[in-house]
């Protein structure tokens, strides 16, 4: 089976009734791009940049960040790369910034992700400078984690334009026009405000890992309540659907890059909700593509409509299992 899946690498992901789905890879380390390409990734839908900041006492320099990003972009040979700015805090610790959980009353709700970058302005500027320099190497998009407020996007955009201006004056080559600036939708408030956020963001990436956690008030790392952590909860599905619809109204791209994007059983539901762009860990790509090739979009939409009338996560899981049965 592995060999036949490998042969799918250069086959586009198209449903039986001709709907094209983009399949991209989540990447956490520069050396992963080879595997992403080998598994048929059409781009990097989520580059987590935490690797540059973890397990060290000093922040990475602009040059170090630039070189790592350039290596990744070069490794993708012209395929687009979506670079997320530092998502520190919460369960992702960065000792150089003092984001240890003990220093925050509630790390998941504290100074993390884009909030931390906006507070440490030099850190944000350095990262944006490295990203913009890397944008000369190939198509790139910039993604902001844990946005909850339109002002956060405006502020980063202002910062990006200042950094770009400064680089241009120093005759340093960067992408022209500037890279699209998008946001993670991974907090319920952001999903509810998706129409408004679509006015300031160029694209959405739905992060179902955190969206599930914040919607259900279940810590991703808390074992005692892990049995309640469920992206199939109808409240989570509603927020995904709201976000997809808002993106469609605003004519901006939307992708899903949480774990569910690489779950062959969940993918038909995402497609039925209107998602056409999935980003997942590379090893899931062939299986997901295989499922999409056998899928009828019209049926996926019908099944999703039925599922969206349900209120019980258990019942939703059963309906989805019933849909997927003949494929697993
Ligand atoms: C998510 O929250 O779904 C996501 C993709 O980001 P991360 O897992 O890096 O928090
Ligand atoms: Mg997240």
Automatic annotation (TrEMBL):
It is found in: Cytoplasm. Its EC number is 2.7.3.9. It is an enzyme of class 2 (transferase). Its cofactor is Mg(2+). Its main location: cytoplasm. Keywords: Cytoplasm, Kinase, Magnesium, Metal-binding, Phosphotransferase system, Sugar transport, Transferase, Transport. Residues 5-296 form the PEP-utilising enzyme C-terminal domain. General (non sugar-specific) component of the phosphoenolpyruvate-dependent sugar phosphotransferase system (sugar PTS). This major carbohydrate active-transport system catalyzes the phosphorylation of incoming sugar substrates concomitantly with their translocation across the cell membrane. Enzyme I transfers the phosphoryl group from phosphoenolpyruvate (PEP) to the phosphoryl carrier protein (HPr). Belongs to the PEP-utilizing enzyme family. This is Phosphoenolpyruvate-protein phosphotransferase. It comes from Kiloniella laminariae. The gene is ptsP.
């Amino acid at each position: 089976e592995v060999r036949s899946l490998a042969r799918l690498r250069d086959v586009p992901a198209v449903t039986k009734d001709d709907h094209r789905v983009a399949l991209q890879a989540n990447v956490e380390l520069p050396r992963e791009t080879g595997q992403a390409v080998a598994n048929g990734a059409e781009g990097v839908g989520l580059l987590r940049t935490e690797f540059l900041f973890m397990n060290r006492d000093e922040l990475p320099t602009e040059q170090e960040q630039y070189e790592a990003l350039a290596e990744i972009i070069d490794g993708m040979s012209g395929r687009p790369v979506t670079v997320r700015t530092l998502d520190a805090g919460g369960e992702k610790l960065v000792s150089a910034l003092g984001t240890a959980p003990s220093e925050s009353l509630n790390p998941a709700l504290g100074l993390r992700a884009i909030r931390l970058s906006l507070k440490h302005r030099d850190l944000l500027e350095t990262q944006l400078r490295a990203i913009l320099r890397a944008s000369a190497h190939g198509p790139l998009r910039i993604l902001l984690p844990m946005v909850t407020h339109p002002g956060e996007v405006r502020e980063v955009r202002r910062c990006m334009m200042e950094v770009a201006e400064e680089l241009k004056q120093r005759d340093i080559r960067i992408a022209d026009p500037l890279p699209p600036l998008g946001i993670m939708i991974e907090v319920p408030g952001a999903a509810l405000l998706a129409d408004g956020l679509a006015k300031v963001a160029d694209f959405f990436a739905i992060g179902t890992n955190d969206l599930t956690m914040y919607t259900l008030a279940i810590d991703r790392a808390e074992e005692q309540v892990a049995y309640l952590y469920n992206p199939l909860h109808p409240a989570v599905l509603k927020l995904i659907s709201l976000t997809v619809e808002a993106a469609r109204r605003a004519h901006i791209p939307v992708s899903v890059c949480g774990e569910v994007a690489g779950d062959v059983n969940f993918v038909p539901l995402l497609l039925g909700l209107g998602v056409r762009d999935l980003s997942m860990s590379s090893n899931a790509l062939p299986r997901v593509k295989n499922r999409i090739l056998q899928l009828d979009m019209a049926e996926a939409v019908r099944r999703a409509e039925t599922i969206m009338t349900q209120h019980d996560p258990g019942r939703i899981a059963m309906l989805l299992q019933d849909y997927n049965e003949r494929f697993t």
